[in-house]
Amino acid sequence: MLRTVAALTLSVVLVAPAHASAAEPPPRVPEQVGWGGAVSSVDPDASQIGIDVLRRGGNAVDAAVATAAALGVTDPFSAGIGGGGFFVHYDARTRRVSTLDGRETAPRSATEQLFVENGKPLPFSEAMTSGLSVGVPGTPKTWQQALRKWGTLNLRDAMAPAEALARRGFVVDKTFNSQIANNAARFADFTSTRDLYLPGGQPPAVGSTFRNPQLADTYRELARTELASLYGGAVGRDLVKTVQQPPVVPGSTRNVRPGAMEISDLARYQVERRDPTHTRYRGLDVYGMAAPSSGGTTVGEALNILESTDLSKASDVQYLHRFLESSRLSFADRLRWVGDPAFSQVPTEGLLSQKFADTRACLIKPDAVLPAPQPAADPNNPKPCEATAGPSNLREDAERTTHLTVADRWGNVVAYTLTIEAEGGSGIVVPGRGFLLNNELTDFEFVAPTAGVPHPNLPGPGKRPRSSMAPTIVLDHGNVVLAVGSPGGATIITTVLQILIGRLDRNMTLRDAVAAPRASQRNSATNTTPAEAEFIAAAATAGLQAIGHKFSQNAEIGAATAVERTKDGRWRAVAEPTRRGGGAARVVWVG
Q1: Which of 433, 379, 424 lies closest to 401, judged by CA?
Q2: Distance in angstroms (rounded) separating the CA atoms of residues 474 and 481
Q3: DSSP-derived secondary structure for 186-243
Q4: 159, 258, 296, 564: least CB-packed within 10 angstroms?
C-alpha cells in the first residue's frame, strides 16, 4: 500500500513539483532539528526533494535515491549516473547495518599496463581526460538494488523528481559556475561537454537557469527500462562509443586517448553486497565501508589507535597531535594493504584489530612527530612499535565527490557517498545523454609503488580501484547515534575521523564538529600536513609546530553532511556552513 500511495504522489510531483520555479531555490541551511526524518546534502534542491519523499511516506532509502538522482542534476561535476559509490544502510527493525558496493569496474581488457605508455606512466592529467580512465558505472544499479532490498518506491518513482528538476532547471550558483570555469579548457575540447556546459563559450552565469533536458530524457529512459538501456541497451551503446571514440572538437591539440570498454562490460556489471567494517570505540559500534573502499578500515584503525588515549582530557595540542599521528599510521597501512578483495587478500580483520592498533599506537610520542613517510606494518604478524611491511608512499587522488545522509520516521538511516572522481570526471559528456563519464580508473596505481613488492591496487580486468569514500554509521547498543560522510578524495578519511572524535571525544556539537577547521595528515613523504587557513591560525597550531608538525595551506578540506538522533527522539541534520558554498540540512517537521 505504501508503494502505491508514494508512487501516485510522486507522479503528481513530476507534473507539478512543489518548487516549480527555478527562480526561487530552497535556502541553504547548515542545521535543522525536528521530527519525521532528515536529509542533508550539499545542495538545497536535492535535499528538498529528499524531504518531499519522506513527507509523502517514503523511507530513508527512497529519499536517499531521490536525493542522489537530484545531485546528478545540480552537482553533476561530483556525481551522477556516469559514476559509482558506496551505500551504507541501517535497518531500524533489525538494528543491522548493511552495505552496497557500487564502485566502478575496469573493462575486461584492462591490464596492469593500462596507464603505461612507452614504458612510463602517463601524466595524471592526460590519463584523467581520456577514455582510458572511464570505469563501468555502478551508481544506477546501486539505486536499483537499494530500492529492491530496502525501499518502498520503484526506480521510476524515485527518479521522477530529479527528472522534473533537470527539465525545469535550477538556479546557477557560484559553486556550479566556478566548477565549470575550473574545467573550461578541457570541457571546451569535447563537442558534447562544450555544448552543454559552455553555451556561447562561457559557463552559465550565476543567477541564470540551467536546464538539462537530455539528462531528463536519459533518466526517464533508464527508469522505464529498469536500467536495461544502460547495461546493454541504447544508452550503454552510446556510452561505449563515447569511451572508444571521445567526441574531441576538430582541431583540438589535446591528446585524448580512447578506452576499450565494450557493451559486454556494462552487461556484466554487478553491485556487490558486502559486510560492513566494524570497530568498537568508546563503547560504541562504528560501521563503515569495506574494501575496495579504504574508508572503513582506515577510519577504524585510526580510532583503535586513539582508543588508548583519553582525548576528552587531553590538551588541544595533544588531542590534535594524536589525531594527526593516528591518521599518518593508518594511511601507511591503507596504502600497503587495501585493494579489490576479489583480486587480493585484504586483511580487514587484522587492520581493525585492537591488538594491531596497539602495536601502532606505541609509536606515537607526545613530544615529537614521527619520521615521514611511515612504513606500513603487517597486521598478519604485528610486532609492537615496529613497522615491517615495507615503504608506503602517498599518491594523491581527486577531491570531488558528494555525500548525503538521510534518516526517516521509523529510524532507518542511509549514509551514501557517490562520485565521478575528479571535478568533472573525465570531462566527457555522453553525446545526447546529458551526463559526464567518470575517471575512476585513475584511482589505481599507474605502476607498482615499490619494485618487487606486491601491490593490491594495480589495474586489472573487471577490477575495482581502491577508494577513500567513508560513509559511516555509529550505533549505541543497536541504536543510531550519528551518521556522517564527506567528499574530498583521500581527505575524506581524515575529515570523517576528525568529525567523529570531535563529536564523541571533545563533546563538540555535531554542527561544530562539521564546521571545525580541518587538517589532513596522510603519511606524506614531506611530513607536511595540508590544513585550512583557520586551522593554521588556531592557538593550538603553534604548539603542534613546536613538536615538529609542519603545515601547508589548503583552501578547503571536505564538505561533510551528517545526521544524529537527539535524546528526545528528534533528528538533527547538519551540513557545511560555508564549504562548497554551504550545504542544505532539512528535517520533515522543524521543532
Answers
A1: 424
A2: 5
A3: HHTTBHHHHHHH-GGGSPPPTTSEE--HHHHHHHHHHHHTTTTTTTTSHHHHHHHHHH
A4: 258
- Would you list the domain boundaries of the chain? 17-29+46-85+105-269+411-443, 273-398+464-561
403 DSSP β-pair partners = 417
Q: Is 503 exposed, middle or buried (0-12, 13-18, 19+ CB in 10 A)?
A: buried
Task: Supply 92's cell numbers.
Answer: 531500524
Q: What is the mean pLDDT of the chain?
A: 94
Count of other CB atoms within 10 angstroms of residue 81: 32
- Assess whether pLDDT exceeds 60 at residue 173: yes
pTM of the model: 0.95
pLDDT(548) > 50: yes
Q: What angle do CA 263, 268, 269 make, to 5 degrees?
A: 105
Look at the domain 273-398+464-561 and name its fold: Serum Albumin; Chain A, Domain 1 (1.10.246)
SS3 content of the chain, % helix, strand, coil (to 5): 35, 20, 45
Looking up cell 519523499 gives 53
What is the three-class DSSP state of 286? strand
Question: Mind telling me the catalytic residues?
Answer: 401
Is 454 a residue whose pLDDT tops 90?
A: no
One-letter-per-residue 3-state SS of 79-142 = CCCCCEEEEEEEECCCCEEEEEEECCECCCCCCCCCCEECCEECCHHHHHCCCCCCCECCHHHH
Question: Does the pLDDT at position 14 exceed 60?
Answer: no
The DSSP symbol for 150 reads H
Reported as half-sphere exposure (CB side, CA atoms, 13 A), residue 547 has a value of 18
CB of 106 closer than 8 Å to CB of 114 = yes
Residue 255: which of 126, 363, 361, 151 has the closest Cα? Answer: 126
Give 436: exposed, middle or buried? Use CB within 10 Å, 0-12, 13-18, 19+.
buried
- Listed in sequence order, the residues at least 6 apart from 583 whose beta carbon sits closer than 8 Å to its beta carbon are 28, 30, 40, 41, 42, 43, 47, 559, 561, 575, 576, 577
